[in-house]
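User: Fold this; C-alpha cells only.

Assistant: Input:
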Amino acid sequence: MLDLPELKVTKPSDTRWLAHEQCVKAVKKSYASIVIALETFYEQTHEPEALGLNKSLSKKSTVMAIYLLDFVLPQVAKLSRCLQAEKLDLTAISGLVDSTLQILHESLLPAANWVLELLDAQDELQAIAIIDSESITSFQDKVAKPFVTDLKENISRRFSSQDIVASFSILTLQSYHKKTLLICRHMGMNSLVFLRTTTARNLQPSQ
C-alpha cells in the first residue's frame, strides 16, 4: 500500500530480551503500514483489539519510544555479542563497556541521532502523529532519561570489576608471542608426560 518492504514482525523472547532489537526495527520500518492495516482491519471487523493497538501506536509517546529503542537496543546487543565472541580479548572489555555507556549517554542529548532521525521522518509520520520539539523534550525528561539512566546503571553494576576481569587476560593465549606459545606448549607436554609416567608408576601393584 505504501510501497514499503515486506517485513516479518518477530515475537520478542522473554528469555533473550535482546531479540526485541529485531522486533523494534521491523515495527519501525513498517510503522505507517501497520497503523493503517490496523485501522482498516477494525473498520472491516470491528475487532476491539485492533482499535486498541491502533490507538496505542498512534500516540506520540509510542512513536518516540520506538525510535529511542531502535537506537538503544543495537548498542546493548553489540556489547553482548562482543562479550560472547569466541576470541574475546579480556583487556578490551573495559573499553567496550565505556564506549557503550558513552553512546547511551549521548542518546539523551537534544540532538541525539534518534531525535534527528525522528524529525526527518515527519513527512511519513504526520498522518499518525505530529511530533514537535516540545513533545520530544518532554519525552526525553519523563521517559528516555529514567530508562537510559537505569540501563546505564545496570551495565555499570554488571561490570563493576572490570580490572579483575582484565587480569585474566594472562590466560588468553592469543596475547602471547608465537615463540612463547611454542615454549608453553612444549612445557605443557613435558608436564603431561611427567604426570602420566608418575601416575602409572604409582598405580603399579607392589611386588
